[in-house]
């Protein structure tokens, strides 16, 4: 199965790009910044969709200087009238792009929860399942991997390698 380079990648926030440390401070996961910057350099639109407050997201994004690499940041509490797993959040995340054919090849959703995966399935985009081995087992038991062409990644370093392979294959 040849995988095409996507036009856009939409990330969940908590547990996918950031985590809460022992003091409940928000920290970037290893290689999050490097990954977002690399996607930007590859001319892939990057957005974030989270079922949290947009003002909170934007403050943290600016603190880590990710804002210049992101197309849209969608916090579904108070900003839009839908939330994950509603497929409409994907449309909000793609505002400002020229993407009209939303499918498995053009848009990917990176997440670490069933809600993120359901969002991808509902929008007919490719789910990229981040880091959760138990989630992988549950999905495989239910036949999701075979039917929905999910990609499983263990870390952002793995994702960077996969993207570089895809970029090389598509040139």
Overall pLDDT metric: 88
- Provide the structure class: alpha/beta
Helix share, percent: 25-40%
Q: What is the terminal-to-terminal distance?
A: 17 Å
Helix and strand pattern = EEEHEHEHEHEHHEH
Model regions low in confidence, pLDDT < 50 over at least 5 residues: none
The number of helical elements comes to 7
Strand order of the largest sheet: 5-4-1-6-7-8
What shape does the CA trace take? globular
What would you report as the Rg, rounded to the nearest angstrom? Answer: 15 Å
Largest sheet: 6 strands, parallel
Record field, number of beta strands: 8
Structure description:
37% of the residues lie in helices and 22% in strands. It contains seven helices and eight strands. The two termini are 17 Å apart. The protein is an alpha/beta fold and 171 residues long.
Gist of the model:
Helix content is about 35%, strand content about 20%. The protein has about 170 residues and is an alpha/beta fold. The mean pLDDT is about 90.
Defining key terms:
globular, six-stranded parallel β-sheet, alpha/beta, 171 residues, 22% strand, two-stranded antiparallel sheet
């Amino acid at each position: 199965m040849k995988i095409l380079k996507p036009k856009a990648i939409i990330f969940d926030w908590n547990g996918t790009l950031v985590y809460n440390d022992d003091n409940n401070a928000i920290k970037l996961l290893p290689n999050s910044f490097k990954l977002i910057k690399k996607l930007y350099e590859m001319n892939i639109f990057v957005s974030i969709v989270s079922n949290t407050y947009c003002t909170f997201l934007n403050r943290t994004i600016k603190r880590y200087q990710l804002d210049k690499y992101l197309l849209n940041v969608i916090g579904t509490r108070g900003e839009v009238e839908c939330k994950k797993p509603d497929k409409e959040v994907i449309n909000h995340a793609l505002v400002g792009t020229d993407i009209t054919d939303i499918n498995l090849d053009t848009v990917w959703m990176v997440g670490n929860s069933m809600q993120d995966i359901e969002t991808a399935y509902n929008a007919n985009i490719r789910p990229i399942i981040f880091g959760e081995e138990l989630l992988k087992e549950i999905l495989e038991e239910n036949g999701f991997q075979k039917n929905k062409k999910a990609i499983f990644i263990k870390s952002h370093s793995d994702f960077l390698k996969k993207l570089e392979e895809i970029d090389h294959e598509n040139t």
